[in-house]
Amino acid sequence: xxxxxxxxxxxxxxxxxxxxxxxYDVAHYLPENNCDSxxxxxxxxxxxxxxxxxxxxxxxPVHSKNPLLIIINFIALVGIILFKNISIVHARSRxxxxxxxxxxxxxxxxxxxxxxxxxxxxxxxxxxxNSVMVRSHLIIAGSNFIFSHIKENYSKHLSAKKKLMVIxxxxxxxxxxxxxxIESEEKKLLKKWEIEKDKKIILLPGRLTGWKGQEVFIExxxxxxxxxxxxxxxxxxxxxxxxxxxxxxxxxxLTEQYRLINQVxxxxxxxxxxxxxxxxxxxxxxxxxxxxxxRVAVEAQSMEKPIIASNIGGSNETVVDEKTGxxxxxxxxxxxxxxxxxxxxxxxxxxxxxxxxxxxxxxxxFNVEKMCFSTYSEYKRILN
Length: 384
Hints:
With 384 residues, the protein is of the alpha/beta class. It folds into 2 domains: 6-170 and 367-383, Rossmann fold; 178-365, Glycogen Phosphorylase B (Rossmann fold), CATH 3.40.50.2000. It is built from 14 helices and 13 strands. The strands form 2 sheets. It has a 7-stranded parallel sheet with strand order 3-2-1-4-5-6-7, sandwiched between helices.
């Protein structure tokens, strides 16, 4: 494996988030195009799936925001860049991006960043810290929403010498394919979740944190029950509290308050998310803050499931309202409940049509091959 193009991606940890899976996908795409691929990371669950013959992994504490460790990482990165003759350094998070910025200035290599979120700022220091993501030669925004956010908040750091562009995040449409799942797997998962498939299942995936909208969802479930007069479905809230035990207790108390204990199921983790979507009938993304991209909406469509999503952020770009899913007014349980009622009342032919249109939408615009090819093409451009 030899090429003039040698790419080093730097990411704090390789978990299962959008930034991490994007890094993983690009890292494995590059060797297929005769490029050398390297990842610097501190660790993560996704590491065990990396093909070590294709991708070289180097462990450094790049997850740390400690200024001393950032300087140590900078020095280590200079050594790696020179020793491995790296052409491009691609940072996917702010703390490691500072080390990468310094290392690329010292070595004269091309610097790429992907702006994965809105990176909230409450003061000028935090905004300065965030600005490292627009101090590169190529700035990649994961959606038009993020592109607009950068232009609005970081315009003074942009110039004619820098390129700001949108490359939509992609998902593996072969993995998120309903035809790959078999009935026995579905039954096994439902048994694990302690759910009898005598009712429809509405799934809300996402880590347990206030901005993901679990409270809005529970409020909406209660409103649907009031409207119908009975419990027409199971509601599955799938995601880890990641140490936010008080927030989970708050959600449980809310289900007790509305007498939804038997209807709402809390599931901490699911190794096979495609299977989780497959056993569900409707998927909800209820975020009350803008998603930079919104993987749930994209994955659900790829699995041919109707998605109901907040009308903010990336969902406005990935969901075709009334065609591949439905958008509701963010942070409005009443609006969400109305969309749930509408979807529940639809016949199977209409639901299948939404599912087919959803998968077609994702294959055309948001598949991982397109994302990787676009990123690879831009790598080649900035070298020239």
